[in-house]
Amino acid sequence: MMLDMASGLGPWSWWIIGLLLLVAELAAPGVFLIWIGMAAIVVGALSLALWTSVWWSWQAQLLLFGILSIGFALAGRRIYATRSHVTDEPMLNRRSASLVGRTAVLVEPIEEGRGRIRLDDTWWPASGHDLPSGTRVVVVSAEGNHLQVEKA
Fold first, then answer.
1. Which residue in 9, 78, 98, 139 is a FRET match for 72, CA 20 to 30 A apart?
2. Is 60 within 8 Å of 46 (Cβ atoms)?
C-alpha cells in the first residue's frame, strides 16, 4: 500500500517526506530531523531527473536516502561542533561562578570549615578556614551553589 502510494506520487513523495521532516524539526527542535529532511529533498530532486531510469528503483532511492541521511547528519554535527559561541554574558547561567572575586561579610561564622555569607539578596553556603562572623571574605571559587572563601 505504501509503495503504491509512493509510486503514485512519483518523485514528489520524497519532497513531501522531506517537508514533513523539516516541519517536525520546527515542532520538536533538536537539529537532527533537518539533516534527514534535507536528504529526502535531495533524493526527491534526483528523482525528478532520474524517475524514468531503469536502475532508479525504490531500493536505490532508499539506499541513497540512507547514505545521504548519515552523511548530512555527520556533516551537521561537525559544523555545530566547530562553532564557537561568543557571548557578552558568559556567566549568564552560572550565577555562582560570576561571584568569584567579590567580597562579602560572613553572616554566620565559618566553624569546622562551613559558614554562610550574604551576597546581594541571597544567602550562600561558604567554606574555608574558621573565621568569626563579621569578617570580610573574598570568594575564590565556586562549585554548584557552594562558595570557597578566604579572608580579604
1. 9
2. no
The three-class DSSP label of residue 65 is helix
Whole-model pTM: value is: 0.52
Going by C-beta distance under 8 Å and a sequence separation of 6 or more, which residues neighbour residue 6?
13, 58
Q: Quote the cell numbers at residue 151.
A: 579572608
Domain extent listing, the chain? 2-82, 97-151
Q: Which CATH number fits domain 97-151: 2.115.10.20, 1.10.510.10, 3.40.50.300, 2.40.50.140?
A: 2.40.50.140
The enclosing H or E element of 39 equals helix 33-50
Helical (H) or strand (E) element with 109: strand 103-111
> H or E element: which one contains 116?
strand 114-119
The grid coordinates of residue 86 equal 561568543
